[in-house]
Amino acid sequence: MSMQNFQSFEIIDGNYDTGMVLLADHAMNSLPSKYGTLGLPDSAFLRHIAFDIGVEGLTRRLAAMLGVPALLGCFSRLLIDPNRGEDDPTLIMKISDGAIIPGNHPITDEEWQTRLDTYHRPYHRAVEQTIAKASTSGRAPLVLSIHSFTPYWKDFARPWHAAVLWDSDDRAVLPLLSKLREPGDIVIGDNEPYDGALKGDTMYRHCMIPGIPHALLEVRQDLIGDDAGMDAWAARLAPIFTSLNADPKLHEYRIFPSRTDPYPAV
């Protein structure tokens, strides 16, 4: 696939009037052919350093079950990370979980800018447009971002089956945590294994700044690494997402201050 016809995102159309949007920043591990494998072995692209394992299949299932629009990132985060702000030093990683990325180090200012212009910015324009399209009749949409995390970090076995990451807007977060924990059969993390307050990331940029209700859900990768796992988690999550979306309070614009920094002046 050449750079000219490489799509940086895929939009799954749905009923925008539902007022729900699903996002999957790290859905895919693809690279335009001009980049080869960035000097990495092919096996690197089966690891979490390249994409969020299981998220594409899970998001497609949820979009189909709920009938809602979804947006998938189509490029590997090894090329450039769509869930980082433009001035984040980890936007283009030189080393990821011990793997040196030869195609990213050294990197010229021109190439850095090319990746922003060709992949990162088009993705974020698509996020903005999709959210705007779902802002029906002046109602804020509910935005749910799907990610996945590794079962282990170093020698630490992560005990959570899933987790909700967030900054300071708890409107969708608290009911999501409650509903995930309600059956009592899984361990749910609250801002684990990472803190959800990250200046410039997708939720900060498209939800925190404009005051749109949102949550970022992380599912452990070994639980959604095959069709059976994706089916099970889609069946678990779909009624929860539907219940959240039925709450009028999750369709109101309300700006919460970020725990990172004051928002940039408009």
Written description of the protein model:
Helices cover 27% and strands 16% of the residues. The chain is of the alpha/beta class. The longest helix is centred in the middle third of the chain and has 25 residues. The protein starts with 8 loop residues before the first strand and ends in a 21-residue tail after the last helix. The model has no long low-confidence stretch (mean pLDDT 96). It has one domain: Zn-dependent exopeptidases (Aminopeptidase). The strands form three sheets. The chain has a seven-stranded mixed beta sheet, with helices on both faces. The protein has five helices and eleven strands; from the N terminus they run ββαβββαββββαβαβα. The protein is globular.
Helices, strands, pairings?
Layout: E1 9-12, E2 20-24, H1 55-66, E3 70-73, E4 95-96, E5 99-100, H2 109-133, E6 142-149, E7 152-153, E8 156-157, E9 162-165, H3 173-181, E10 188-190, H4 202-208, E11 214-220, H5 227-245
Helix pairs in contact: 1-5, 3-5
